Every structure is written in C-alpha cells, then in structure tokens.
C-alpha cells in the first residue's frame, strides 16, 4: 500500500517519553538555573499556594459554589480545590517547605494560615505528610533539631496508630467519610 501513512498509537511511546522528559528537565535545570532562578520559581510557587489558601478560606466561610452541587457528602467537608480532604491536606503539606523558604512577616502569616487549614482537613495522612516535610526542612536547615523532631513525629505517629486505629484500617477511609 504505497502512499498511505502509518498511524502509531501514542500510548506506545509514553513509557519512553516520561523518562526522557524527566532527564531533559533535569539537564535544562542543571545548565540554565541559577540560585536566583530558583528563588523566583519558589516565590511564584508560594504565590500560587496563596491562591489555593484563599480558596480554602472561601470554603470555610461557605462561599464555595463548585463542590456544593457535586456530591452531598462533600457539602460540609473542607476539600480545597482538589475535592478530597486527604489529597488537599497532602497538597498543603507539600506547600509547607516552600512557604517556610519565604522571608518576611507576611509569609509567616500565610504559613500560619496554611497550618490552620491543614488542621481543619482532619486528615491523618496530611498531618504525617506535614511532619515529614518539616523533618526534611530541619535536616537541611537545623540539623540539631532534626532528631528531636523525628522522635516527636514518631511518638505522634504511634499515638495516632494506637488511638485512631480505624484511620489505618483497610476500610478506614470509608468509615471516616461516613461520619
């Protein structure tokens, strides 16, 4: 069949393209990024995180119109832009080190709001993720406090396991959502 083009399924290339893309991103970052570039990137990531926090505040005061009509079970839950309290809590935990990198009183206040919103999600996975994020920060910034924080986080994790065993059960998420 001369003159006909072959059509390839793009899904065949995905296992190859993802590692190549990661490698290309890494190489570009090594060659072109400076310390000033990283500061700008983290500053813009933090500003984007502020928008997510503000949307969470809208949810807290009841002005969220997106998740009120989708699922009746989400009506009184704090789900942020993600639609799931656990995923939103982990998202906030990932933003925590980026907020801690920023300087100034304004960023300390945003970090306090982030911690308040994280607590309001009532997500055990979010709490543990925030603990791991803080441990990561302490390892690089204040190593002498790292071991104390590791002990505190370990004791907290054991306490959560002992007193909230249902959250760690296979169907723990289902029982938590039914409340």
Beta fraction of the residues? under 5%
Tally of DSSP helical segments: 7
The helix content, as a percent range, equals 55-70%
Inertia-based shape: globular
Mean pLDDT: 82
Helix-strand topology string: HHHHHHH
Largest sheet, in brief, is: none
Round the Cα radius of gyration to an integer and report it.
Answer: 21 Å
Low-confidence stretches: none
Kindly state the number of beta strands.
0
What is the rounded distance between the termini?
64 Å
Structural class: mainly alpha
Question: Mind explaining what this structure looks like?
Answer:
The protein is mainly α and 179 residues long. It has seven helices and no strands. Helix 2 crosses helix 4 and helix 3 (85-101) packs parallel to helix 5 (124-141). The longest helix is centred in the first third of the chain and has 26 residues, at 35-60. The radius of gyration is 21 Å and the shape is globular. The relative contact order is 0.08.
């Amino acid at each position: 069949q001369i003159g006909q083009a072959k059509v390839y399924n793009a899904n065949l290339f995905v296992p190859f393209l993802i590692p190549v893309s990661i490698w290309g991103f890494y190489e570009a970052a090594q060659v072109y990024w400076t310390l000033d570039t990283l500061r700008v990137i983290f500053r813009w990531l933090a500003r984007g995180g502020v928008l997510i926090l503000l949307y969470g505040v809208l949810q807290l005061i009841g002005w969220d119109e997106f998740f009120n009509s989708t699922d009746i079970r989400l009506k009184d839950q704090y789900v942020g832009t993600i639609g799931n309290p656990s995923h939103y809590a982990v998202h906030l935990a990932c933003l925590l080190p980026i907020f801690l990198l920023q300087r100034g009183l304004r960023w300390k206040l945003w970090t306090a709001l982030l911690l308040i919103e994280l607590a309001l999600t009532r997500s055990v996975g979010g709490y543990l993720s925030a603990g791991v994020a803080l441990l990561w920060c302490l390892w690089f910034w204040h190593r002498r406090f790292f071991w104390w924080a590791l002990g505190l986080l370990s004791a907290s994790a054991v306490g959560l396991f002992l007193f909230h065993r249902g959250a760690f059960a296979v169907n723990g998420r289902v029982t938590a959502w039914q409340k």
